[in-house]
Amino acid sequence: MTSAMRQLSRLLLLLLLALGATACAREEPVQPSRSASARIGEVALDALPPQARQTLALIRQGGPFPYRKDGTGFGNRERLLPRQPRGYYTEYTVPTPGSHDRGARRIIAGKGATGDPATSGEYYYTEDHYQSFRRIRP
pLDDT grade, residue 32 (50/70/90)? Predict the structure, then answer.
């Protein structure tokens, strides 16, 4: 390798290092993430709409459920609920008066210590189709 090529190689290496350092300096600082449970509020059972209380009663008695999707797996893709293994959460429709489809309201049930959503006591309410959740207090 000639002297000129070595100098050019060094110059290119220095240029790449400088660009990398500049790019790193522009990155946003990493913010400490809050746990999912820290982002979840609570709602008292008696503060829920009557349709949500009816849906919760159906969950606790094991059905029957009015919607085909009720009782199916909820993937927690939004990662707003506490992280659990796949299949831990199930979803249930909370009817919305005047809606021609399932609407946006749901109750998500965890399996809890019992392994059964009907008896787990772990229930979350969303009225905005998984954008936010509140844990249901008895």
Answer: very low
- Measured CA distances, 84 to 37, 54, 77, 109, 138 (Å): 12, 26, 11, 12, 22
pLDDT digits (tens, 9 = 90+) for 61-87: 999 999 999 999 999 999 999 999 999
Which of 46, 58, 50 has its CA nearest to residue 105? 50
Asked whether residue 96 carries a pLDDT value surpassing 50, the answer given is: yes
The third-level CATH classification (topology) of the domain covering 41-137 is Nuclear Transport Factor 2; Chain: A, (3.10.450)
Domains of the chain by residue range: 41-137
Predicted pLDDT of residue 71: 97
Q: Is 129 one of the annotated active-site residues of the chain? A: yes
User: pLDDT tens for residues 4-18?
Assistant: 666 656 655 555 555
**From 78, 100, 127, 129, the catalytic residue:** 129
Residue 82 burial (10 A CB sphere; 0-12, 13-18, 19+): middle
Q: Give the whole-angstrom CA distance, residue 90 versus residue 58.
A: 13
Which residue of the set 42, 91, 100, 127 is catalytic?
91
